[in-house]
Specification:
Residues 1-74 form the 2Fe-2S ferredoxin-type domain. InterPro entries: 2Fe-2S-bd, 2Fe-2S-bd_dom_sf, 2Fe-2S_ferredoxin-like_sf, 2Fe-2S_ferredoxin-type, 2Fe2S_fd_BS, Beta-grasp_dom_sf, Diverse_Oxidoreductases. Keywords: 2Fe-2S, Iron, Iron-sulfur, Metal-binding, Oxidoreductase. It contains five helices and five strands; from the N terminus they run ββαβββαααα. A hairpin with a 2-residue loop joins strand 1 and strand 2 (8-11). It has helices at 20-28, 82-89, 99-112, 118-125, 135-150; strands at 2-5, 8-11, 46-49, 52-55, 68-69. The radius of gyration is 15 Å and the shape is globular. The chain is of the alpha+beta class. It folds into two domains: 2-73, Roll (Ubiquitin-like (UB roll)), CATH 3.10.20.30; 82-150, DNA polymerase, domain 1, CATH 1.10.150.120. Helices cover 36% and strands 12% of the residues.
């Protein structure tokens, strides 16, 4: 099999039914996406396939037909993505386990909606669970990311 992940081509042998998450973590060394539930309910494993957020724990690697982007691949030229920068500035993470999936969902939202409303944020982030309850900080970080993205940061 061959996948393009974070702009790099990977050739590997795997059962086509293996979840994309395990191919990313175990075969390609991409440890940003986390295993949370295994049933696509928590969002910790969220990555992008052709720019769309997907739950990698339940997507068979054999069904992936586009380029995959993980949290490791969203920054450019050694710079954080505006969403990552906003996460730091708003001090969102507590335990941090869900944050890669949260950030990937937020990036997808801002790629689709330049200035999201609270309803847009709720809709896009609704499937991402945070045990620590940092939802108000997540919303604040998304709002800050809009400002940073607009400013070209």
């Amino acid at each position: 099999m061959r996948l393009t992940v974070d702009g790099q081509a990977f050739d590997f042998d795997a059962d086509p039914e293996m979840p994309l998450l395990w191919a990313l973590r175990d075969l390609m060394g991409k440890t940003g996406p986390k295993f949370g539930c295994g049933i696509a309910a928590c969002g910790a494993c969220t990555v992008h396939v052709d720019g769309q957020p997907v739950r990698s724990c339940s997507l068979p690697v054999g069904e992936v037909t586009g380029a995959v982007t993980t949290i490791e691949g969203i920054g450019t030229e050694g710079r954080l993505h505006p969403v990552q920068q906003a996460w730091l500035e708003e001090q969102v993470a507590q335990c941090g386990y869900c944050q890669a999936g949260q950030i990937m969902s937020a990036v997808a939202l801002l790629d689709e909606v330049a200035e999201p409303t609270d309803a847009d944020i709720d809709d896009a982030m609704g499937g991402n669970l945070c045990r620590c309850g940092t939802y108000p900080k997540i919303r604040a970080a998304i709002r800050r990311a809009v400002v940073l993205k607009t400013a070209g940061i």
